[in-house]
Each structure stands twice: as C-alpha cells, then as structure tokens.
Specification:
The chain is of the alpha/beta class and about 190 residues long. It has seven helices and nine strands.
Amino acid sequence: MIAGLLLAAGGARRFGSQKLVALLGGEPLVRRAAQVLAATTDAVTVVAGNEAAVVQSALNGLAVQFVENSNWSSGLASSLVCGIQSLPADAEAVVIALGDQPHIDPTVVRAVVARWRAGGCAVVATRYDGVQGHPVLFSRELFGDLIALTGDSGAKRIIEQQSERTAYVDVAAPAPVDVDTVGDLEGLGG
C-alpha cells in the first residue's frame, strides 16, 4: 500500500491569511493538492496545524485522514513526524507532497510510484529542470529516519544520506508553484 502524505500545517505568514483555503478556480488550494494524492495513492493523510479546523473544512467529503499537528510552529519536521506516525500500518512507502502546491501533476506522482515499484531504491525524488522538488517517495525502511527529524528542515538530509539508494523522476518543466504570497496565487489565476 502506498500512502500519500500532504503537509498543510504552516503559518502562511507571507500570505497574510490561511492560504490553503484561498480559492483557485473556485476550489481551495489544499483541496486541489489532496485530490491529486487521493487519485494517485492508496490512502491520504493530511497534516494541518495553523487554523486546522479551517483547513479540515476545506477537505470535507474527501476520503482523507486528517491529523492535527499541535506543534506546527516548531517547524516542518514536526509535521513530517506527525504524519509518518499516523500512517496506516500496512504502508509500504509514502509519497510526500505540499498543500500549497495546487498544480501537482498526477502523471508525475504516478511516475514516482512506478519508479519505486521497479525496485532498487529507497527514495524516489522528483527533479524539475534539474532542481529537486515534490513529490518525494520514501520506503517504509526510512520511516524511522523521518520520525527522527527535528527543527524547520524537511527530509532533504535523508535524501542526501541515501544518495546511492535514491532514484529520480526527471520532469522537463518548471516545478509546480508553491503559493507563498497573494501574488503567487494571482499568478496562477486565483
């Protein structure tokens, strides 16, 4: 079973309000990202923190598990830990994506999963025009390493440590836009 983990707990300080519920094409950003993971993985867990109830309401009706990270302000690692600890016991791997990237390409997620299923790797990362981005898949054997993360850094260190066991899905296009500001959203037509 391949789990999806959507990180949606940040403070949205640069946006000025809870950006994850801002509308793009009439739909909350976080909902768009969650729908892609739900269509490409077997079970989705969404980790929210800042204004968690508002984020959860934007996901009403979707088949996702919702987990609240009460320690979200301590940094990204706390959301990864919270999410990994809540994954189903039969999860063989996890695909991690970001709630503020509403244009995750389902084809790319499927390619990441397919590359992992082909074997020979513990991590599958996405590279857009040569730059590493999301989604990233981690095999169950690395869940302990993910749970040991601290601070405001993500799992990049684990990818670097596992460089010989990391495969890449190369995409000849720019990475999906992270919506960090109102201008980012307006640039997407929101």
